[in-house]
Each structure stands twice: as C-alpha cells, then as structure tokens.
Amino acid sequence: MKKSETEDFQTYLKPTAFIDSDSPEIVSFTRTHTAGARGDIEKGVRLFYAVRDGIRYDPYNIVLRPEAFKASIILKKGFGFCVAKAIVLAAAARAARIPSRLGFADVRNHLSTERLRRIMKTDVFVFHGYTELFLDDHWVKVTPTFNISLCERFGVKTLEFDGRKDSLLHSYDTKGNRHMEYIHDHGVFADFPFERLVEAFRRNYP
Description:
By secondary structure, the protein is α+β, with helices and mostly antiparallel strands. It has helices at residues 24-34, 39-54, 71-77, 82-95, 114-120, 148-154, 194-204; strands at 56-57, 79-80, 100-109, 124-135, 138-142, 180-189. Helix 1 packs across helix 4 and helix 2 runs antiparallel to helix 4. The longest helix is centred in the N-terminal third of the chain and has 16 residues, at 39-54. It is globular and about 45 Å long.
C-alpha cells in the first residue's frame, strides 16, 4: 500500500485540539526521543517506548473533560490510562512527520484488579485506546498502555514493538493465565472522538 494510493495522509499529520502535535511540549518530547534516529521506523519505535515507560499507566484518575485528553496536558501530568497514552503517541508521531490515527476496541481484562472491578462493576473496558502508525508503507497497531514497571509487578508480559508488526495486548500473562480478550472493534479515527467515548462510558459505567 503506497501513500499515493490511499487516503489523504495530510489528515493524519495535522495537529488537532486533542492531538496537539505542534505544541512546544510535544515537539520537545519528540525531538528528544528521536534525536539521531535513522528513518521513520526507528523514530516510531523510540516514541513507542518513550510513551510506554515515560507516562505511568493510571486507570483510576479519568476526568471526562475535553482538556484532560489533550496530548500536551497528558504529557505534562506524566500519567494516564490507555486512551490518554495513545493520544500522546499519536501526537508525537505527527510531530515526527509519521502519519498516525487512533483506534478503539472493547476488551475484557481477565486479570483486572479487584479494586478496578469493584469500581467498574465489570471486567470489560469499553473504548480501549491504541495508536496506528503508518510505517514501511502500511498501518501498524501499537499499544503503549502498560509501562514496564507495572508489567513486572503484575506478572504481565511487556509489549514490544519493532515498527513493522502490530503490537497489541497479550492474550495470556507470563504464567499462561488468560489476560486480554478483544471483543469489539470501534474502528480508527483521525482525531479523538471525545463525545463517543463519554457516551460509551456513561452507558457502560453508570
């Protein structure tokens, strides 16, 4: 698949209100982590690890206000849940001139903590967020959600990314227990669909 044969890739390079890839914070973050990189694949890989481990995963402090989903604000806070981290990676990729978009799926986390199940009343996470990057003439799905320290603590395999193959949440943990199950795909978006996420959260987590 060549860029010239597909959709208008400028859509996936433009900054938006949420994916503010032109903000000083995102530009500085991107330059720092891609300095000396040779080509888009190496840049994409470096940015994945920078977001995966540089922003702490936190599913307990979700604020359903538009400003809380702006990439630069998430980066400054230094923590966020899956959607927030996916937005930062998408913004950093665009700052590096790598086309990016956001994908969403409902997933069942068979290893979610008792505290989280008690709060959510379910082990299904609706609108789980991931990022798609256009590298080596094709879209690859990449999930920067769980930082390495969290994975080590809970015995979950860390997700690795080589810039060429999809990197999605593991089906099993390090002991062979069922971990993550994808149950519904919402598709991909050039910008963050804030209203759709809020509607899904309110419908599923009253």
